[in-house]
Amino acid sequence: MNHIRRFFLVLSLATCALALRLGAAPPPPEGGFTLAVLPDTQFYALKHPEIYDAQTKWIAENVKRYNIAYVLHVGDITDKNTAPEWEVAAKAHARLAGVVPCALLPGNHDYNKERGSGLSAAFPPDEFRKLPTFGGFYDQEPQRSDNSYHLFEAGGRKWLVLALEYGPRHDVLRWANAVAAKHPDRSAILITHAYLRPDNTRFDRKVFAMVKGKRSNKGLDGSALSKSPAGFNDGEDLWQKLVSQHANFTLVVSGHVCITGRRTDTGKHGNAVHQILVDYQNQPNGGNGYLRLLQFLPDGKTLRVRDYSPTLDDTIAAEDRVFDLAFPPAPKGK
Questions:
Q1: Are strands 134-137 and 302-309 parallel, antiparallel or unpaired?
Q2: What residue ranges of the chain have pLDDT lower than 70?
């Protein structure tokens, strides 16, 4: 009897383990399109360049099958902002050149204390300007790749992607608001590094919580950049000052903290805005290569979310990483 019980216990444990994994890549959204999200790649750039390369190789090889319209990197491209790490990133992204456009931005690990970064050297502004989907850079820093916007069409609608630096400065938000207002007929997506927390709340310096018996700030005030005279805006600031103010915002994607979170709020114009967090850096090998595939189905109103690793050939089946969202219709503009 003990042997039988042991057999069924082992079988049960094995079944539970399998239930957390779907195995292989998710099916493509036939008739729809995909946005491929690269979560924080910092440890791939530092220690596992082969994983970074495998991610972009899979994307490049599957652009047609999944109808991948854009690649979105949410920052912390590197871990220590060093030249060798930027070389790893540039080499991995070279696989995408001429195949699919990519929007990226600096995370806190891509900066020094004065917002110095190797981003613009590794990903030169002039290379972005060659892309037909490229819109422009932050108007006060046209020779830096830190803040940009991108325009493309997919799924029968027009899209705007705003890629903003970690803790955007006040004037960067002035520029971002002007860009969003200039394109009211485009469904707007914000990508930035630190916006949403794993508890589904936004980073908010005005809120405190008890963590292990200590009063902890739920914003980003621990960052040296938060003291900058140029200003520093966390997740709640971005919602209040930018995202909620425009009728065309539909989606926010961020990283910075593991592993995932999501929420939906209504902007001041009545538009639903989905906000999604994804970051695998605390997993083995710096994340095991998981990508987030945002699949927009052909019905024009369903966003299917799946996390897939090309190095493991595995799709996670955890409830918080396999879900569908009702997507709002395209904005009417003015």
A1: unpaired
A2: 1-22, 210-211
